Amino acid sequence: MSKKEDFKKFISNNPEFIDYVRNNKVSWQSLYELYDLYGEDKSIWNKYISNNMDNINLKGLLNTLKNINIDSLEENISSIQKAVSIIEELTTKKEEEQVKENKEDINKIYGE
Q: CA-CA distance, 90 to 96, in Å (whole number)?
């Protein structure tokens, strides 16, 4: 693969660079020259990748939070709480039955 093809693949794996070029913060030529000199060395690309990724993650998180329906969330939590309480109830009954059976077994052994 040629250096140019490697660069295209690198850019396609890191689409953050497209925003930098579109916002006139850097040119494709400058990015290619950096790539030609340093390759994919992360220390060179951190200023382009990490800062922008933080913004993308924050935007994604905010968009997700905006789309949460609070009423639906409360209903789901309520359903989960009911399910947990039913499981607790069943487990407690099962444990009580086992304790009762163990006492009966002990009484049979010792003749009480």
A: 10
- Residue 8: name the closest of 24, 32, 34 by CA: 32
Mean pLDDT in runs of 10 for the chain (112 residues)? 86 84 88 89 78 58 78 88 92 83 76 63
Q: What angle do CA 100, 101, 104 make, to 5 degrees?
A: 90
Place of tokens 């086992």: 98
Residue type, 42: K
Q: How is residue 78 written in tokens?
A: 């309520």
Cβ contact 19:52 at 8 Å: yes
> Is residue 5 classed as helix, strand or coil in its secondary structure?
helix
Nearest-5° Cα angle at 38, 25 to 33: 45
